[in-house]
Fold this sequence. Notes:
The chain is an all-beta fold. It has one helix spanning 239-242; strands spanning 15-19, 28-34, 50-51, 55-57, 59-74, 77-92, 111-120, 124-131, 135-139, 144-148, 162-164, 182-192, 198-204, 210-213, 249-252, 257-262, 271-278, 288-289, 295-301, 307-312, 326-333, 336-342, 344-345, 354-355, 359-365, 373-380, 408-415. Helices cover 1% and strands 42% of the residues.
Amino acid sequence: xxxxxxxxxxxxxxxxxxxxxxxxxxxxxxxxxxxxxxxxxxxxxxxxxxxxxxxxxxxxxxxxxxxxxxxxxxxxxxxxxxxxxxxxxxxxxxxxxxxxxxxxxxxxxxxxxxxxxxxxxxxxxxxxxxxxxxxxxxxxxxxxxxxxxxxxxxxxxxxxxxxxxxxxxxxxxxxxxxxxxxxxxxxxxxxxxxxxxxxxxxxxxxxxxxxxxxxxxxxxxxxxxxxxxxxxxxxxxxxxxxxxxxxxxxxxxxxxxxxxxxxxxxxxxxxxxxxxxxxxxxxxxxxxxxxxxxxxxxxxxxxxxxxxxxxxxxxxxxxxxxxxxxxxxxxxxxxxxxxxxxxxxxxxxxxxxxxxxxxxxxxxxxxxxxxxxxxxxxxxxxxxxxxxxxxxxxxxxxxxxxxxxxxxxxxxxxxxx
Length: 417
């Protein structure tokens, strides 16, 4: 399932563009980049938490995408803000300022929009490493390398970008050749008036976006598989064409994006922290983690400490995951936060979208290290027990979860971004 958030966080390109007003449009200062990390980033093999299985989330040092268009959405109508031919390559890298020089002049017409969309070629290059239970797996220019996990104490000298001819499996038509462009988008009302001096940031979050498989066993028989290695809806192409058994590989899921806007030229961009969570506290303890048991969530915070947005990764455990993709209704009291969680509902043309709130989380507290845990209360939200089907996709089932009838403790542990 693929849904889109309104104002939220996502993967990471960096650039500053001045859109100058002409022809009646409104000039906009646009920044496209990685959302900065609230915590200091490191560069060490232990930045990738060791998994207890053949699958792990990778520590990403860069994802290269080839942008083709940036568009506004108004219901089902789309309009280019700026386009690049054949493409503009950008680098998504956490915790850095990847300044991208874009000289095109463009405008955004005055009006109200229901979202923004970034289109890019359905391929990517990745520089990443991971630590599974058995192997240290990393990218090189020539291919994917795996070596005994205990034998690696520093980043290998041949560590480099590796290029994949596909990105999103669900829209790729081939595992070896050119694929049509794909996209990421947000839904949320954005109004631009003639008096606005608008700053707009399209922020990507590469943390826990890329997963790895060390080639142990077979994908079909492995219950610990992480997305996209466990996806079956691959546009009619066999999963083995993308990721052969016994072959180490990296995979990328849907690329999430957060849109932030301000009329204050000096206001700081939001920063992000990423957490693993589980209803079983023991899933977050120890030096190794089985990521199939965790919900991975990035939270964005404004400079004043208020929560700006959140986005959960598509869970590998499907409906058993306690947190679905979308968050809403953020509030802060002293140093604790509360918010709602659920899926997304839209019209069939992806207009008039809004969050479903079938779970409520209260008392979430940020931590300052990568070993301690915090807890929050997990209970029913106002939409639990309702019936909402996504138009045109009855196979996705009821988007609302049934009511729990009682509360539980949800444990959190901050992860290295």
